[in-house]
Amino acid sequence: MTVIGAVDRSDRAPDIVRQAHELGKAFDEPVEIVHVLTRDEFVSLERTTVNETGEPIPTEDVVQIAADIAAEAIDRANVDATPVGLMGDPADEIGSYADEGANYIVVAGRKRSPVGKALFGSVAQSVLLNASVPVVSIRAE
């Protein structure tokens, strides 16, 4: 089993990594830090690569880019963890990945108005409501 920290490119990412690391230490579990590239991010990368090389970007490269973003968050938190890159809908991919053997998921919410939550949704909220394992939600400043 493992502890998963789900990060984006925000300033909150190191806080998520540190909290996941603390849980991992407390329960003697490995820690994996996950970043999911969305379809929009993938399409943006695809356009950039096709424009530069004329060739589409391989899926493995996209997943590696996502893992590199997770690795950056780990480096900023200055702890030991394994970076994981995924591609797709963040809430769905995080939930599916956690179903493969996680004990906990760590996420961070952001302050939003009720209207903003209703209109735009939230990855953290969706993970909280749909995960099959306990979710630790931190409030990062």
TrEMBL record:
The record's annotation in Gene3D superfamilies points to: HUPs
What CDD domains does the entry give?
Answer: USP-like (cd00293)
Q: Which InterPro entries match?
A: Rossmann-like_a/b/a_fold, Universal_stress_UspA, UspA
Q: Which Pfam families match?
A: Usp
Q: Which residue ranges does the record assign to the UspA domain?
A: 2-138
PANTHER family hit by this protein = STRESS RESPONSE PROTEIN NHAX (PTHR46268), UNIVERSAL STRESS PROTEIN UP12 (PTHR46268:SF6)
**Entry's family note:** Belongs to the universal stress protein A family.
Instruction: Write the protein's name.
Output: UspA domain-containing protein
